[in-house]
């Protein structure tokens, strides 16, 4: 009997507690059941939770967060991306720049490091062909520009002076035979024609030795015309270039084993790429490499690289691959020693692309600002594809002919976020008011 009485008291307490909780929830506008609606009814405005207005459902039910009954939303759902008005004058003040969406080919592949180096085949090292001294040095140091035919230094060499005298002796003997009084009569037992032929052979050999000693052609012609030995022999540049090394100064003793200076043609350069074993294997027999200048990022060049020309380091297994390029009018953007951004890939088919700077990354999504008329701008969510650094492929979200903002998009994007937040707040404020009115009615 006692146990039955205790159980009865407990059941009455539980029921009373449930009644109090129900009255308390009702007094605060919280209903345990949804507003009576037709089963499975779908309304244009949708259904929302009074306590969680961000939640929107197509049919009535309970809130998955707090369990409250859903109520009708106020009218149709608010625009998630409302247009932001920007007048023409405001566009000019913020420097707004638009670009029409179109199709273009981009390159997509592995990025590798590269450096512009001198083309070794265009480098000249000047080493005297005989013992001597540098009497005059006409260049200041490494980095000086030189022009074709410019004097680099003058060499004083007794050995080369003696070669000039030997050559002049042959010229004197030849002139003596051809200008003898009485004509070309025999000399002893030797016919003059044979002697002239012998002198001509010796003269040819002597002149070749002077040419091999880097004596310029104009100096040899002056020697033949004046019959005077040139004490200081000039050494001139064979083509335009830049001094890359200077190992001797004025008064220094030099010889065949002592280079004086070297210079290289700056118009002939190469790019040296550093590749990993995987990149080298994927390169194939040859591939096009797109180079972007670090001096002027708007300047690009395309060269052809051949894998069989790579040199692999046995320790690091990295491969160095050199490809000759002809910068032409873009030489200033690819000077020797500068770094480049290299991408190994051929061009893809034409796809919808936008500048990489036009993309706004909002968490896990990407957006661009699209022009809606002349003074309206609206954010559009896009799905991106491959990128070559400057442009990025847009797989979904844009169509050719639309206009996107490429400069000033951050200001419009921030204003669009505020406009969307205000629209959501206004759309959800009325359901809360309706819920409060529904509570007071009961």
UniProtKB/TrEMBL annotation:
Gene3D superfamilies: 2.40.420.20, 2.40.50.100. Signal peptide: none annotated. The keyword Transport applies. Keywords: Transport. Residues 126-261 form the CusB-like barrel-sandwich hybrid domain. InterPro entries: BSH_CusB (IPR058790), CzcB_C (IPR058649), HMBD (IPR045800), MFP_Cation_Efflux (IPR051909). It holds the Pfam family HMBD. Residues 47-71 form the Heavy metal binding domain. Residues 352-412 form the CzcB-like C-terminal circularly permuted SH3-like domain. The keyword Isomerase does not apply. This is Efflux RND transporter periplasmic adaptor subunit. It comes from Pelomonas lactea.
